[in-house]
Specification:
The complex is a heterodimer of chains A (about 70) and B (about 450). Chain A has a domain at about 15-55. Chain A is about 50% helix and about 0% strand. Chain A is mostly helical and about 70 residues long. Chain B has helices spanning about 10-15, 20-40, 50-65, 105-115, 155-165, 180-185, 220-230, 275-285, 300-325, 330-340, 345-365, 395-400, 405-410, 440-450, and strands at about 45, 75-80, 115-120, 140-145, 145-150, 170-175, 190, 210-215, 260-265, 290-295, 370-375, 385-390, 395, 415-420, 430-435. With about 450 residues, chain B is an alpha/beta fold. The chains are: A mainly alpha (about 70), B alpha/beta (about 450). At the A-B interface, helix 1 and helix 2 of A face helix 9, helix 10 and helix 11 of B.
Chain lengths: ~70, ~450
């Protein structure tokens, strides 16, 4: 199958969503985000999210292989 | 013997010809480190006793008229390489509590087998997540060409130690540019081999998908000599290719006749300062290159590398982030915590882009053998500088120094970084990018540029 998938929707640039994401991500990873770290984490999560916008908007075929291929 | 600015090949020849001894060379190296490294902060561990012992063994071999390609050549390694009897700190506070390594890294063993002598371990950005050379635990490495400027990272001490004339060769690692960036900032030749070419066994990882090891030196021939000594399959590193040794030192002197070269534009002619483009143009002109081409999707490639790095890095350090977050370098910690939150869907898409981009670039290599691009968007920023302006945008220095190196290591291509001096100020590097497994081509071009005086390393006064 060589049908191009539609690009994934853009990530909402909503500050409240980012704050909620940090709280949920920290909880699910068993991490404590000290208030002193939070601003730094936010800056970097913003950078990661910006990178992800480009990555998720990239159109690929359904049968595109990921980089690491397991060789038994 | 003053060895500070001698190349490894000149040292090995002098030792092999019995004009000097390994003991003498190594003593000179250790004396220079003791006298000057308080200014540059390249070393975290100086291994004088071990170095003297190894040098004595080399001299015994030389006395038996054994000619060794790296006889008596002092070298040092980024402190993420295992060095027997010291903990592999990888630039961190946490790791220095580990037990001392019980054996050397494979690449150290291979260099010493050919006569080289390890003199110490080098400063680096914490856990290699760094392009600046700043380290909150061990202090910033200072650029020997101007001590107020960064060496670049994360192989910061590797750049500093070679540029300062302590050793002619140092080993570094390059996940997203950490050999090419310090080579650029410190005016050195650096080789990031093809992904999987050199064994990573017994070194501390960062991002398994992209981790490479390789040399930095003040001459292209020294890159070739050390690279040749380190090649070969290794069952201890599952990524290490089952390829026989393909020697380059004898190949690189053959010239570049027939090598099809193009300069990369598009993505690689944006977001840099004028000297980055000037340096690349100067190299292209010297090589008689008029063709230009583009790596379509380099921006998506870089973004993908960014995500995979953050995500794999976070996975590696998750336990330490849970238990000892306060003991990390804050700049590294906050990036890793952010990385831990990346959804898997994002990184899997990024890994798919990796294959797509690889196929695209493979097609480009049907037309060209070598691609030229800047190594860094700027010359070395000031130590402590947090932001810079690229194309009018105010950006963080730390994550953005690697904009030109990241898309290339993303697909594991071999690159020789070559130093250009645009004026009387600091140097800046150019990437000479070759197809997979063709390090010989990149080194041939580097050698030609050095021979013609276009690219060279200069002694630093500090």
């Amino acid at each position: 199958m060589n049908t191009k998938k539609p690009a994934a929707p853009a990530i909402p640039a909503d500050p409240a969503a980012l704050e909620a994401f940090i709280d949920a991500g920290a909880a699910m990873n068993g991490l404590t985000v000290d208030p002193a770290y939070r601003e730094g984490v936010k800056i970097h999560l913003n950078a990661v999210t910006n990178a992800a916008k480009l990555v998720l908007a990239f159109e690929l075929e359904d049968d595109a292989e990921p980089g690491p291929v397991f060789k038994p | 013997m003053t060895i500070a600015w001698h190349t490894a090949s000149a040292i090995a020849k002098a030792v092999n010809d019995k004009k000097t001894s390994a003991a003498e060379v190594v003593s000179a190296s250790l004396e220079r480190i003791a006298a000057l490294d308080s200014k540059t902060n390249s070393f975290t561990d100086v291994l004088a006793a071990r170095a003297h012992e190894t040098a004595a063994k080399v001299d015994k071999r030389a006395a038996r008229s054994e000619r060794l390609p790296l006889a008596g050549v002092p070298f040092a390694v980024k402190n993420l390489f295992d060095v027997k009897s010291i903990p592999t700190r990888a630039g961190s506070k946490i790791n220095r509590e580990r037990k001392p390594a019980c054996a050397d890294s494979v690449l150290i063993e291979r260099l010493e087998e050919q006569g080289a002598v390890l003199v110490g371990a080098l400063n680096m950005g914490e856990y290699a997540y760094d392009f600046t050379g700043e380290n909150v635990h061990d202090g910033a490495a200072c650029n020997p060409h101007d001590l107020t400027h960064m060496t670049g990272g994360s192989s910061s001490g590797s750049g500093g130690a070679v540029a300062a004339g302590y050793v002619p060769i140092a080993l570094g690692s390059d996940t997203n540019g950490s050999i090419r960036v310090p080579s650029s900032f410190c005016g050195l030749f650096g080789l990031k081999p093809t992904y999987g070419r050199l064994s990573r066994a017994r070194s501390f990882p960062f991002v398994g998908s992209f981790d490479h090891l390789g040399p930095l030196a003040r001459s292209s021939m020294d890159l070739a000599l050390s690279y040749d000594a380190m090649q070969g399959p290794d069952h201890e590193d599952p990524v290490c290719a089952q390829r026989e040794v393909e020697l380059t030192a004898t190949e690189i002197v053959k010239g570049i006749k027939g090598v099809r070269i193009a300069k990369l534009e598009g993505y690689f002619s944006k977001m840099g300062e004028p000297e980055a483009y000037e340096a690349t143009a100067r190299v292209a002109k010297a090589l008689g290159v008029s063709e230009t081409t583009e790596l379509e999707d380099a921006g998506a490639a870089r973004a993908s590398a960014y995500l995979i790095t953050a995500s794999e890095g976070a996975a590696l350090h998750l336990g330490r982030l849970r238990e000892r977050a306060a003991d990390f370098d804050p700049d590294v910690r906050d990036r890793l915590i952010a990385g831990a939150m990346i959804p898997a869907t994002w990184t899997i898409q990024a890994q798919k882009i990796r294959c797509h981009f690889q196929a695209q670039v493979r097609k480009l290599f049907e037309r060209f053998d070598i691609l030229l691009a800047p190594a860094t968007p700027t010359r070395a920023p000031k130590i402590g500088q947090r932001t810079f302006k690229l194309d009018g945008q105010e950006l963080l220095v730390r994550p953005n120094i690697g904009i030109y190196t990241q898309p290339i290591s993303f697909i594991g291509l071999p690159v020789a970084a070559v130093p250009v001096w645009p004026d009387d100020g600091l140097p800046i590097g150019v990437q000479v990018i070759a197809p997979p497994w063709r390090e010989d081509l990149a080194l041939r071009v580097a050698y030609q540029l050095e021979r013609d005086g276009v690219c060279q390393s200069k002694p630093a006064t500090f």
